[in-house]
Write a structure and sequence with these properties.
The radius of gyration is 20 Å and the shape is elongated. A hairpin with a 5-residue loop joins strand 4 and strand 5. It is of the alpha+beta class and 217 residues long. The strands form four sheets. The chain has an eight-stranded antiparallel β-sheet. Strands 3-16-14 form a three-stranded antiparallel β-sheet, with no helix packed on it. Helices cover 21% and strands 38% of the residues. It starts with a strand and ends with a strand.
């Protein structure tokens, strides 16, 4: 287990900010209880932030017959919806909610070519809100493999303020590789063809780059 590169800058800034605050407090008071309380608070805050940016090593043997989970979390929606951004027709949507305690790395669900990628600024509704897929800050990526297209949408939550996307339009991408990162609470939506054979159910907990979401015919 290591720290993801997206956390380096935040952890460095947090460390020096907490250090300055603790030094300042020590100059303002010699109350042992107050000093201990701030020291413990600083340690807990720093360790939790480091835990959030943890980077577990996960390896998935590429399999072009399955769609692998792009994120850790809980399946909060499985439904047929109209997808207005790219497909402009009915698709099977599978939504994975990522709590602040989940790993927030996003992995590529299938191998193929990146046909489309688009960032959209937006609001910060709670990630399980039905409108968060359309209203929140989000990034959409479409991957195509031998005529099969899948849309992966990274959605910022109430705490998140930055979505990172590593995909480049027109470039090949391999299943199981990192495709991005969402900071501090979020959701990932998958849009699959109607009739796709799902291997997950509503309320199920899944692991990115491990759990099989669907099988392709």
């Amino acid at each position: 287990m290591s720290i993801h590169k997206e956390g380096y800058k935040i952890l460095s800034g947090l460390f020096f900010t907490l250090l300055i605050i603790n030094i300042t407090i020590r100059h303002l008071t010699d109350n042992a209880d107050v000093l201990l309380a701030f020291t413990l608070f600083s340690a807990v805050l720093f360790l939790f932030t480091a835990y959030f940016f943890r980077y577990p090593k996960r390896y998935f043997v590429a399999d072009d017959t399955v769609v692998v989970a792009p994120a850790d979390g809980k399946v909060v929606a499985i439904e047929e919806v109209y997808e207005p951004e790219y497909f402009k027709d009915i698709r099977l949507q599978v939504s994975i909610f990522m709590s602040p305690t989940n790993v927030h790395i996003n992995w590529t669900p299938i191998s193929g070519e990146v046909k489309y990628t688009r960032y959209h600024p937006g609001k910060y509704l709670v990630a399980w809100h039905p409108k968060s897929s359309e209203k929140n800050e989000r990034n959409s990526v479409v991957i195509e493999d031998d005529g099969f297209e899948i849309l992966v949408r990274q959605i910022a939550g109430a705490l998140a303020r930055r979505i990172v996307n590593y995909c480049e339009e027109g470039k090949p991408i391999e299943q199981g590789k990192q495709m991005g990162f969402i900071k501090f609470g979020s959701r990932v939506d998958l849009f699959l063809p109607v009739g796709t054979q799902l291997e997950v159910k509503l309320g199920q907990k899944v692991k990115g780059n491990k759990t099989i979401i669907a099988r392709l015919s």
